[in-house]
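Researcher: Please generate the 3D structure of the following complex. Treat every line as part of one assembly.
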Amino acid sequence: MAEKPKALPQAMRPSGVAGRIFAWLMRRQNKPAYDWTVKQLRPVKPKSVLELGFGTGDVLFEAARRLKAKRLVGRDPSVLMVHTAQKKLGRFRRKAMLDIALGDDRRLADGPFDAIVALHSFQFWEDPETTLVRLHALLSLKGRFVLVLRRRPARHAGWLPNPLSRRADEMEAAIAAAGRAGFVLSGQKRIGQHSHGLVFTCG
Ligand SMILES: C[S@@+](CC[C@H](N)C(=O)[O-])C[C@H]1O[C@@H](n2cnc3c(N)ncnc32)[C@H](O)[C@@H]1O
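Model: Done. Output below.
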């Protein structure tokens, strides 16, 4: 008999009742990172925002509410997260162009974007070098790319699909890979216990 495929960890593919609980906890824990990210985007006054791995959709929600972005695009491989974010963002349907759909770092949307953000999803990108090159091509010349890395002990990283996230020096490796893709680091900050935020310009 064929073996049942192994379910992916909730952090990588939130689903079902456990996924709802996980998403609730994640949202509470990541609120400081959402706020910091939106603050980094404010100087750009982005009209268009792409988020990769948007989860509950809170950053896109705040980009619509606080920054008045007019094009909100998100890609996430979790059906549960797509439904959750679509529902949350529905109230902006008349004010902004919404494109919240299934996808991942290999299935992106057409640019250009004034802002690109990815919070705690980098660890799941299988081929980060290629994704970073693609994101660089999608960012408008004066745009910003905000990448928030999940901080964790290296001993918990062995299962992650991203080879850079499996390294003890993930942050330095991510900055170097972004540099090879053409990005220039313009700021960074440790955000609470769990996150490290990086801000890049197009270079
Ligand atoms: C830990 S959650 C973080 C969600 C949200 N950004 C936040 O900070 O609350 C990771 C998210 O990345 C998504 N994801 C998993 N693999 C991905 C990939 N290859 N590309 C983009 N997103 C991915 C998951 O479905 C999930 O919604």
